[in-house]
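Team,

Forwarding the record for the chain on the shared tracking sheet. I've put the sequence and predicted structure together so nobody has to dig through attachments.
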Amino acid sequence: MNLNLKLDITIEPVIFLLAFSNGLSSNGGVNLIMAKVCHDYQHETLLSSKSCFQRSADLNTIKTMLKECLPIVPLLLGGAWRDRHGKNIPLIILLISGQIVGALVCLLSSIFLESISAMVTVLAESIVTGLTGSLPLIIMTATCFITARTTIEDRTYRMSFVLAAYLGGLTLGLIMSGIMIQNFGFITLYSVATILAALSLVYVCLMVTEVAVPSKEPLPIWLMFKIIFKKRDKYLRPILLSIILVHSIYGAVLLSEGNVFVIFLENSLKFSLTEAGLYSSYKSIMLALSTFIVVPLLSKYFKMKDVSLGIISSIVMCLGAIWTAFSTTRLLLALCPLTDLLKGGVFAVGKSIMTKCVGQNEIGQMLGAEFVIEACAQMTILPLYTYVYNKTGVTKFPGAFFMLSAIFSLIILICFCVIQFLTFKKGKQSLDEVIISTDIEDGVQDEPSTKL
């Protein structure tokens, strides 16, 4: 078995630095909101009422929804602009600038802890980072980079490296945030977050290069969704629609779990600030191992097909959610992240199949439209998780919201089974044969594929 691996590092360090900065800011933001809402500065006491924690959860939900919905504007405009001009670096600079300004907003709110309210902080930071793209624009530009620089055969495991870089930085941010808040305070935390984002900007300007490949026939923005719904040969249209549904649900579930998870640990399971940060980091490490080691090994070296990997990953994701929901002791909870070792497969497979079903000159707009659909899913699913947690967080079943994750995992599994059914219905043994048999001239792919 040949284990030679050419990484061709391009955008991954930028993703790592931004994720590190985002991990510090996001986890710090949860605690900053709690410090503003639940702290009585007049008597220097920490309030512990149910309404206090519910208000914190509600503010975090508002923040998360704004950060996920506002990027629709730069994604639509940026996706169309990227396909028209074939450039990614200007979009990266835009989102990094938003990350820097957002961290500075939180830094200012930390300096004036009693003067600037939690709501003002949430609105200002969310609007700035949201309108400059935030995480969705990072993923879109990274996907475009990887698509342009890799063959179709290598794309799945390269997509897993993108997620691994993000999770690696996020994990480090989660680990350091709790330690930094307890030992140095919010001001130091957001100062470091600002510096990390600035370093990523320097790296982009000095180290990242690209060759622009403009689209020959770019679609106007108002026809962007035509790329998703237009007729394609060999069942590729229902396959593309199914995998977009998979990725939208997957992203919404991860976001919704993360939105209430820290509060769930601290409030319902009585974890300390440091313990909650360490446990969140532990989960992120398992997911990072999934994307950096497990998925590349299964995809690249053991030749597992994308759909098979997706089916297995969704089954494990469902079982892991059920296990976590009923874990009431720290020992049981400590074993739950082990199920995340295959969870990253859904992300890698989803992005890989999406980019293989369309031409390179359609990827930017397709991803922009896909993120709009994902944002709609998040607007629906995110409040549902918050509602369920607020109703069950102080009961004997505080992990009830994980049962929602189990249900959505079953939907993902059904979508992968539909893709497999369409593949067999076409008389092919694997989805790669469907792609190979599709005419290149139709704009479905830009080069022959031997593996999907």
